[in-house]
Amino acid sequence: MGSEAAGGNEAAFQPSAGEHKWMQRAFEMAKEALQNGEVPVGCLMVYNDEILGQGRNEVNETKNATRHAEMVAIDQVLEWCHQNGRDHAGVFQRTVLYVTVEPCIMCASALRLLKIPLVVYGCRNDRFGGCGSVLNIPADELQNTGNPFKCISGYRAEEAVEMLKTFYKQENPNGFRGAVAVRGSQKK
Amino acid sequence: HYIMGPQHKRRKTEETVPFAWEVIPVLSDEKSQDVKLLTAYAAPIMNKKETSRLVKEVAALYPLSGLQHLKRVRACEEKSSPHPLEIILCLVSNVKDHSDADTVVSLSDLFSDRNIDCSGLGEPFLVQVPAHPPLTRPQFEKASCHWPTSFHEDKQVTEALTGQLFSTEEKAKMQGYMEKAIRTAKEGENKGMELVGAVLVDPNTDGVLAVAHDCRNSSNPLLHAVMVCIDLVAHGQGGGAYTYKDYPACTFAVMDRSHCTLAEKCLISIDREDCSESEDSGLPYICTGYDLYVTREPCVMCAMALVHSRIHRVFYGISSPDGALGTKYKIHTHTDLNHHYDVFKGIMERECQQLFLK
C-alpha cells in the first residue's frame, strides 16, 4: 500500500486558480453592502469553483451578535450540503473562504472547527482579528479545535479599510452597534 | 464520650460549609502570576536626618522609571540593626550589563564624578525588588517579603480569592442554575448530543432567560451549548437565527417564579434593552448584564461570542482541554478586546466532572 501523508486528508488540496476572481466578487459584495447602508464586508465560501455561501452581517435583524457574515455563509454551506445530501465535513475540508476583512476570533475558531483549509482576506481587523491581529487561531496549538489552516492576507487591503471607514462615518444611529463593532478600525 | 466527640464535630462542619465546591475566580495573567523580581543596589542610611536629602539626590540621578510602586526607603528589618533605614540606589541594569550583574559595587562606582554627597550612606548591597505593582493581596504579601511597595487593593478580587465574594444564598442560586444546566445536558444526551448544558440568567431579577444543551451533533456542528444559549436569548427578544423545534429542552423565557408569560417576558426584555441603551452609551446588546452558567469551560469560539454579546459574568464547572476562559486563553481579560467579563470556575465541579466522564 502507498504511504499516506502525515495527518493528510486531501493533503495536496490546491485553492482555486481563480483567487483573484473570487476576491473581486467579495469586494463587489462589500461595495453593494456599503451602498445599502450595511456593514461593508464581502464574504464567499467556494467549493469546486462554485459559490456555496455568500454571507452578509445579520447582527441587526437577528439581535444575535454572533451573526457575522462568515457565520451566515457557513450556514448556507450547511444548507447546501443538506439539500444535496452531502456530508458537510468532507465539503468544508475542500472549501475556501474569501473575505474582504480578517475574520474575528470567533469566526476564525469556527473555520478551524470546520477544518477549512484556506482563508484569503483583504485588510487586518485590529479590534477582533483572529488570524494574526489579536490572536492567531489558525496557527495556535489547539489539539481539540479542528485543524490549523492557511491564510493569505493583504488583498486590496487599503480599499477594504476605506470602505469600513466610510461606513463608520455614516453610522446608522438606529442600528445595533454590534453590527459596527463587529470589525474594522473604528474610532475610539 | 470519647467516640461521640469527633462525630459531633463533623456534623457541625457540614452545617457551616453547605457546599462541596468553591467559586474560584479566573483572573488575568497579570493578577495570577508569581511576583517577578529585579535586582537592585540598596544601601543603609546611617544617619536618619540625611534621608530626605538622599532620596531627592538619588532619585534625581537614578529615577525608578516604571517602578513607581516601589518605596524608595524601607525601615530596617532587624531591630538590632545599627542603621534604621535602607534606600534603593538604582537597578543593577541601570549601571551594568548582564555579564557581571551579581557583583557588589562601591558607592564611588555608582556615584563617581556625580554631584552627590554620599555622607550618611553605608556601603551598597544587592537586593531583590518586585518588578510590577501588586494587583492582588497574595501578590502584595509576596512582594512585601522582598521590598515594600504601594498597593491599591481591589476589595472584590480579595474577596473572590478568599471565597468570600458570594454569600451562602448566592451560592444556593448558583447551584440551582448549574443543576438546571446539568439536567439539560442530560436531555441533550438523549438526542445524541455532547453532554454540555448552559443557562443564561438575569441576576437582577433571578429570571432564567435561556436554557440550552449542546446541539453540535445536529446538522450544524457549530451549535455548541453557549452558541445555542446566545441565540435563544435573541429569540426571547424577537430575533434569533435558528429554530429548536427538534430540541424541546432548549428553551427561552422559561416559566420562573415571576410567572411571566412568554409575551410579557419579551416585553420586559425590550424594556430592559431601552433602559440599557439610554444609560449605557447606546449599547443595546442582548446579553448586557446577564450571567451564563455552563457545565464546562467554553471553547474560543464560544468565549469570543460572549465578548460580542457583552455578557456580564460566566460561571463554569470544569476546565476543558482547549478552553478559552483560563486554560488556553483568557479571552475575558484580553486587553486588546473592547469588552471584558468576570469568570468563575468550580461551580458544582464534581457533578460537572461526572458529566464529562460519562
By helix and strand content of chain B, what is the structural category?
alpha+beta
Distance between the termini of chain B: 44 Å
Could you name the CATH homologous superfamily of chain A? Cytidine Deaminase, domain 2
As an assembly, this protein is: heterodimer
The main sheet of chain B orders its strands as 1-11-10-9-6-7-8
Pfam families (chain B): dCMP_cyt_deam_1 (PF00383)
GO molecular function (chain B): tRNA-specific adenosine-34 deaminase activity
Family (chain B): Belongs to the cytidine and deoxycytidylate deaminase family. ADAT3 subfamily.
GO cellular component, one term (chain B): nucleus
Could you walk me through the main structural features you see in this protein, from its secondary elements to its overall organization?
The complex is a heterodimer of chains A (188) and B (358). Chain A is α/β, with parallel strands linked by helices and 188 residues long. Chain A has a single domain (18-168), classed as Cytidine Deaminase, domain 2 (3-Layer(aba) Sandwich). Chain A has 7 helices and 5 strands. The longest helix of chain A is centred in the first third of the chain and has 17 residues, at 19-35. Chain A is globular and about 40 Å long. Chain A starts with 18 loop residues before the first helix and ends in a 7-residue tail after the last helix. Chain B has 358 residues and is α+β, with helices and mostly antiparallel strands. Chain B has 2 domains: 32-161, no CATH class; 166-273 and 283-355, 3-Layer(aba) Sandwich (Cytidine Deaminase, domain 2), CATH 3.40.140. In chain B, the strands form 2 sheets. Chain B has a 7-stranded mixed sheet with strand order 1-11-10-9-6-7-8. Chain B has a 4-stranded antiparallel sheet with strand order 3-4-2-5. The radius of gyration of chain B is 28 Å and the shape is elongated. In chain B, 37% of the residues are buried. Chain A binds chain B through residues 58, 61-67, 71, 74-75, 78, 82, 88-89, 104-106, 109-110, 113-114, 127-128, 130, 134-135, 137, 140, 142-145, 176-178, 181-182, and chain B through 219-222, 227, 230-231, 234, 237-241, 282-287, 299-301, 304-305, 307-310, 320-322, 328-329, 331, 334, 336-338.
